[in-house]
Amino acid sequence: EGIEKDTAMQLEARHMAFVNQLPEHLAVNGNHSLLYSVFRNLTDNAIAYAGEGTTINLTAEEVGDEWHFSFSDNGVGVAAEHLPRIFERFYRVDKGRSRKMGGTGLGLAIVKNVVIAHGGTIAAEITTGGGLTIRFRMGN
Fold this sequence. Notes:
single chain, 140 residues, alpha+beta, 5-stranded mixed sheet, 4 helices, 29% helix, globular
């Protein structure tokens, strides 16, 4: 909810919707600041690259002693050949972007490292119908 409030102006400016479907009882043990950075970086990335009018969906399901998260959008997506590398530091899908036009290429690398530091795993896939889905799991 905090990230939704923090990014409300950017979402509105791009005519985007953020649908938070996280369960009320969700709890993950870990560093609050680092966990915030996971969801903030994913949201900022979607706002910057998914395209106007996109809907961002955030869900989680409790499976045993883990939470399985899905962060997806119905935006422009990423070509399949980029999926294996999008979590690498400094990797940019659009090589023509300068740092002035885009980010540093660190956002998804930070996400991956925080998820791993919290004992989880992460993967990206093309969303059915277009867009990008990031799936990750962490212990609760």
